[in-house]
Amino acid sequence: MEQILIVEDDTTLNMGLCKALKEESRQIVSCESIFEARQQLELGSVSFVLLDINLPDGSGLNLLKEIKDKDSKMPVILLTANDTDTDIVLGLEQGADDYITKPFSLAVLRARVNTQLRKLQVYNGGSEFKDGDFVFDFRNMTFSAGGINVELSKTEQKLLNVLTDNAGITVKREKLIDRLWSDGAEYVDENALSVTVKRLRDKLSAQDKIKTVYGLGYSWVKQNG
Question: 42: which of 27, 49, 91, 189 is 20 to 30 A away, CA to CA?
Fold first, then answer.
């Protein structure tokens, strides 16, 4: 399960960020200081950090350096009122994966967070997903069903990645649409998701694996339940 760490000392904004980024298969942990953030990071289960720069006990840039020194692949987005070109360049040069200035759109924030998490999934997704006769390697983009290699489109690959990453959990239609088409598409017909699911089922002969949960979304049915 993804765990997002939000480090923001504005309590109202912190609560709004938690609500905007919350999903069924995602854990949100929030704190309001560098001290609290370090404690959470020490637990070792954080997947992604949304980090304010101006914090009551120091600069978020110092924490950014600590995070990147320990794990260069940990995605970090800076969230700050410091909006000059110099500030932005400094943050990016110190290792931030993205830089969002206040005020901002929650929809844009969600899209940028999801983009970074997808990149992380590609990096970590080198581990194969195996379930019975299905073997999916998301790093090398090779997919087989019953020992037969299957060619999937980019969108089908994304869909399969999200479903298998949440195997046994119903993934809501809205989340799938956001994950598959949030990069630039202003409007996506919901029927596009149904069509993509059908194509993926047919290509993999996975009618019994990709389950429709009517009124909610879809799930990958694990072999042992």
Answer: 91
